[in-house]
Write a structure and sequence with these properties.
Blueprint lengths: L60 E7 L13 H9 L2 E6 L5 H11 L5 E4 L4 H6 L15 H13 L10 E2 L11 E5 H6 L8 H14 L4 E4 L7 H7 L9 H6 L1 E4 L2 E4 L4 H15 L12 H9 L3 E6 L2 H15 L5 E4 L15 E3 L6 E4 L6 H11 L2 H9 L6 E4 L5 E3 L1 H5 L1 H9 L10 H13 L8 H8 L5 E3 L13 H22 L3 H18 L1 H20 L2
């Protein structure tokens, strides 16, 4: 998956203390061909339909769905309690066509044989090729007739998703109108308290604290940045050295926006300052020494056994929440807590943005030209993204874990929701991979309501810190989404080479033997980047960014 919104990092990636993982997933499918012809522009024109909207549940509707991921296998629709209720009550049936571990090969075979699924679900950047081949149906004719997507996603998000021909082909998954994100700094509770709860706000505070940890706890890792070869906590520290400077500029965009255009990252004095600090931590053994080679499992093991004093990561709440639960099993006083993001002295702490969020959400679903009745499929997807669809698929049939709605249209949770956590967790987790047009704007409200219904000591670790810290320290970079050039274009080739150079320079800077060597490494990296054509790439990215801003202004 792309680096912007990975599974487990999206709007609903939180694992609630209520025990429910509500993450955005889905997939599967294959369908009979029909006689619709390609439009002159290479797209497909939906068949004419009646003026009255088709009503969900008025008659059976079935379609096939293909999840365009090698790792994804769609659970059987109707096997779990929730989807079985939807199958029976709303007469909806979805059949999977699974990738079998090789999604690209499977999809190519289906395109060549013209035996496409009715719906394809996957990363958004994979759909343009399908549109150019004329195998997707534009969704615009249905937006007003079935209004939930347009109402909840809004014009800005839908315009961002439009293709070059101005039409909409993608139905977004886990789109949102509010901040999301799981990045930040996590502190070992026991160690912090034993050291007298020193101030831990600035980069100076952090450095002094890590030195104290090293001195007092020789078997503890002072600072754990996760897998540094992927950026993670190393990139996160970049955000501490300037206001409104998320780690995403370094780890995802690899460019810094200044005065309305993207500029070279290696020429940025803030990046140099941040890498000098990271290198200092590494040289003084205040940071994991195998940060560039360790695996995810090794990071988790260290957290789960309490061998970390401070942990920083883009996915901090995901790993730390599980580690907190593990440690507190045997010792109620053990575990982790989050702190407000670290900042360089003199900066406004409230303007430190650790990472980004993207209102477009995670991925998308698209209806193919071989679908027998695309309007009915759209009607189903539109219902699924509605409040009623979200309640049925994510929270279950009415009367089980909720009954009736409050004044905000949110479900009233029943006693059974709280009294049977294990059973509820099993039932709710069963539809995680069937949630392929999720509406985070509505669903997050239910999640927060569920948390606030609990005594404070029983509220989820994730939601507590998301609400108090992480959602307040992530920056909206929606307009900078989807600006990457095609891989086979001149700019795309430059980008691939630039990414490799960036990773190499970052690793060399971490391992450098002195501050001066860090600066020399980055300066040489800048010269190499210019030779690669970084300016041409940044001009391309800037143009696409500005185009996105204009798209979002349209009504």
């Amino acid at each position: 998956m792309n680096n912007w919104v990975k599974k487990g990092m999206g709007p609903l990636a939180a694992v609630m203390a209520l025990g429910t993982v509500i993450s955005g997933c889905s997939g599967g499918g294959s369908a009979p061909a029909d006689n619709k012809a390609a439009a002159p522009n290479g797209t497909q024109t939906p068949a004419a339909s009646s003026s009255e909207p088709w009503k969900i549940g008025s008659e059976p509707v079935s379609f096939t769905l293909f999840g365009n991921y090698g790792w994804y296998t769609m659970p059987p629709w109707g096997k779990d309690v929730f989807s079985k209720h939807v199958q029976e009550q709303y007469k909806i049936n979805i059949t999977a066509i699974n990738a079998g571990g090789n999604a690209e090969a499977k999809l190519s075979t289906m395109i060549v044989s013209k035996d496409l699924p009715d719906v394809i679900w996957g990363d958004r950047d994979k759909f343009e090729r399908l549109r150019e081949n004329g195998v997707l149906v534009p969704l615009d004719p249905y937006l007003d007739k079935y209004p939930n997507l347009k109402k909840w996603a809004g014009d800005e998000i839908l315009n961002m998703l439009r293709s070059k021909d101005g039409k909409l082909y993608m139905f977004p998954n886990w789109y949102t109108n509010k901040p999301t994100g799981n990045a930040g700094y996590v502190v070992n509770k026991k160690i912090y308290e034993e050291l007298g709860k020193p101030k831990l706000e600035t980069t100076d505070d952090l450095y002094n604290y890590l030195k104290l940890v090293k001195e007092k706890y020789p078997n503890i890792i002072p600072f754990e940045p996760g897998q540094a070869k992927e950026g993670k906590g190393v990139d996160l520290l970049f955000s501490a050295f300037a206001e409104n400077n998320p780690a995403s500029y370094a780890g995802t965009l690899r460019a810094v926006p200044k005065d309305g255009k993207f500029t070279s990252l290696f020429a940025d004095p803030v990046y140099k300052e941040a890498m000098v600090f990271v290198n200092k931590l590494h040289r003084e053994k205040l940071m994991t020494q195998d940060a560039l080679t360790q695996t995810v499992d090794q990071v988790r093991e260290k957290l789960n056994t309490g061998r970390v004093a401070v942990y920083a990561d883009i996915t901090a709440t995901d790993y730390a929440s599980k580690a907190d639960a593990e440690l507190s099993k045997s010792d109620p006083n053990a575990g982790y807590f989050m702190i407000w993001p670290i900042h360089k002295p003199g900066l406004d702490k409230n303007k430190i943005m650790v990472a980004h969020y993207d209102r477009l959400g995670w991925n998308a679903a698209a209806i193919t030209a071989t679908a027998k009745d695309p309007e009915k499929i759209f009607a189903v997807l539109d219902w699924m993204t509605s409040p009623d669809g979200m309640r049925q698929i994510v929270w279950g049939p009415e009367g089980m874990y909720w009954k009736g709605l409050d004044s905000e249209g949110l479900p009233n949770l029943t006693d059974k929701f709280f009294s049977e956590p294990a059973e509820r967790t099993k039932n709710m987790n069963a539809t995680n991979d069937l949630q392929f047009v999720g509406n985070s704007t509505y669903n997050d409200k239910i999640k927060v309501k569920a948390e606030l219904s609990l005594p404070e000591e029983k509220r989820s670790w994730e939601t507590k810190y998301q609400d108090a810290i992480t959602w307040k320290t992530h920056m909206d970079l929606t307009a900078m989404r989807g600006i990457e050039p095609p891989q086979d274009s001149p700019e795309g080739i430059i980008r691939e080479r630039w990414i490799e150079l960036y990773k190499k320079v970052r690793a060399q800077a971490i391992l450098a033997k002195s501050e001066q060597e860090v600066i020399e490494i980055i300066d040489k990296g800048e010269k190499d980047a210019q030779t690669l054509g970084i300016e041409k790439l940044n001009e391309y990215l800037t143009k696409r960014w500005k185009e996105n801003e204009e798209k979002m202004k349209k009504k």
